[in-house]
Fold:
Amino acid sequence: MTAPKPSLELLRALTDENVLRVLMAHARLTRAEIATRTGISKPTISECVQRLEQARLVVDTGERTTGRGRVGSYYALAPHLGTALVASITPHGVAAEAVDALGRTHGQVRTALQADAGQEAVAEALGAAAVQLGGQTGGPLRLAVVSAADPVDRATGRLVHLPDAPFLVGALDPPAVLAGTVTGPVLVDNDVNWAARAEYEYGCVQGVDDFVYLHLGEGLGCAVVGDGVVRRGHRGLVGEIAHLYTAGPDGQAMPFTEVFAALDLRRASSTAVDVPKLLEILEAPDAGADRVRVALAHAIGGVLSAALSFADPQTVVVGGPWGSRPRLIAALEEHLTRSPRSVPVTAAVLTLPELAGARSRAVEELGSLIVRAAHPATQW
Structure:
């Protein structure tokens, strides 16, 4: 039986998507250059560009080719197509930026906050950043992608407050905060999941579809990636490891977060890890520091053993302000070599990976919105 031929509308939609995608990878192109990059004939590209101009998705930039031969016009995505908001909420403040479909940044806002600033202050900073960026870009903020240093309910996008969480922003609701300034969807996930996505796309585990990303900073977190996808679980709380039982300094089992209390590595009046103090210990040459490093390796090794049992990763990535230190990585490797299920341990390599991961998703989602706008009735 002969398969049915695709409709003319579907063929046009596919051609339009190819042209829009190539213009998302290049700031400007002539029709001949578009034809070369897409492998589509020049007459078909000319018809497509005309359609996209009429739809106000593509514009003639007014620039012309120089040199011998026929003069060509340069085309680009229309400037009014809007931007995506990318925001990162951390214990130190809110960082936000607007990006277009080519990944270019059109304004940045950074608001410093205290770790105990609270839900209202964080909401105010996030909302104000969105308003400021919306005014700077001259077009709509069509969607938002938010990274938060707290657990996130995957169904609602609200932050989830768990016991002993070092960053107290309660049940902050980013979709509600941004509803008045962002015209489209608001995607929220925790910072460790975004960091894992970034390392998978651009960092130390490119091409590795199954891995665990362990974040060690003021807070403790883990991301599980299986078949190239971050696994979030029923509520979105996969990787919340603070209360996972592991080996304490004296060999007795205790929650992971309590190990740092037992080692006197918490900030005063907080459950947050004292990162400066811990970094000093990791680099110190004395026997006392060695004992702390061994205790940390045993505790972290217990957490990783649980991850290996449940997730069966190909490798483990360790990141965060103190997680990727060479001495700690070496201690973890030594500990895991004695495990029945040893896997390689590697240090994360990206700077601000959570923001990089959120930015990448924002650019991807914005591109898809623009493509769908060309043929809103087509089933993609």
